[in-house]
Design goal:
heterodimer; A: mainly alpha; 2 domains; B: alpha+beta; 6-stranded antiparallel β-sheet; 30% strand; globular
Chain lengths: 98, 182
């Protein structure tokens, strides 16, 4: 059985990695990460800017539209109030001087 | 030197003209310090629309709708609309001082009261004051004070009878008859 043990010990003995092993692993990993990140980082940069500009412009236009409708409703309410008061005044004047 | 003096004079004149116009507009626009009534009111309306807001709102008024078309035409000559309307659940909430602070701002010779109605039936006082400058109506104030209501409507600008007559038939407003020039 000694030959078997010898063979096993030989096969399973601790081997130190080559000195450039760590550098090779690090460079491979970083290369893969960069390759994966590139389309994500490069493409959406202009796309995100365009989307942000569109969103801001859209929100601005929407807010302006809302403000316009609020102003319009206020004008209509003001005219309705002034109109109803004038109507009442004329009715009272007609009652006094038919 | 002469050019510099001329341009300086032009600037001064422009400023003086702008100040005169602003002063004239301020005279028609009343200071309505009635915020204390809003807290006591069961229902209140506070509308302040200057010229730019009116023109902005005008862009959103539909010319095909008869009511909105009439209002659009009317606001073209108006510089501002300021309305304070308060409804109260109890009587005697507003005071004579509130009424006086509005009335005291409308001074002769520019301002004149053209209508004054005192209703014994419901105790309501109605007044219409008009600001006349250079033969033109440049401001109107409708003042209605009842036991449970207080309304001030201040319309600043060239409020002509024509424009008011155009509102006839809209919002329940009857057509106002004008005296025609002979």
């Amino acid at each position: 059985m000694d030959w078997l043990e010898d063979e096993l010990q030989q096969a399973l003995r601790r081997q130190e990695p080559s000195p450039d092993f760590e550098a090779r692993v690090t460079s491979t990993v970083s290369r893969q990460v960069n390759a994966a990140m590139r389309p994500v980082l490069l493409m959406p940069r202009w796309l995100a800017t365009a989307a942000a500009v569109l969103a801001i412009a859209g929100a601005g236009a929407g807010y302006r539209y809302h403000q316009g409708h609020v102003a319009k409703e206020q004008v209509m309410l003001a005219m309705r109030l002034a109109g109803s008061r004038l109507n009442r005044i004329q009715m009272q004047m007609k009652a006094v001087r038919p | 030197m002469k050019t510099a003096r001329r341009s300086a004079l032009t600037v001064v004149r422009t400023w003086a003209l702008a100040c005169a116009i602003a002063a004239a507009l301020c005279a028609q626009q009343l200071k309505l310090n009635l915020e204390h009534l809003a807290a006591k009111a069961s229902d209140s309306v506070d509308i302040s629309l200057n010229n730019s807001m009116l023109q902005f709102a005008g862009k959103f008024l539909d010319g095909k709708d008869p009511d909105e078309a009439a209002v659009k035409k009317l606001i073209a000559g108006i510089d501002g609309i300021y309305i304070r309307n308060f409804e109260f659940k109890q009587e005697g909430v507003w005071s004579q001082a509130d009424l006086d602070q509005v009335r005291n701002q409308m001074k002769a010779p520019d301002w004149s009261r053209i209508v004054g109605i005192k209703s014994a039936e419901d105790g309501e006082n109605t007044e219409v004051h008009v600001c006349n400058q250079a033969g033109k109506v440049t401001g109107v104030v409708i003042l209605v004070s009842g036991p449970k209501a207080f309304t001030v409507a201040n319309i600043v600008g060239n409020v002509s009878l024509d424009s008011l007559a155009d509102l006839g038939g809209h919002f329940g407003l009857p057509k106002l008859e004008q005296k025609k020039k002979k």
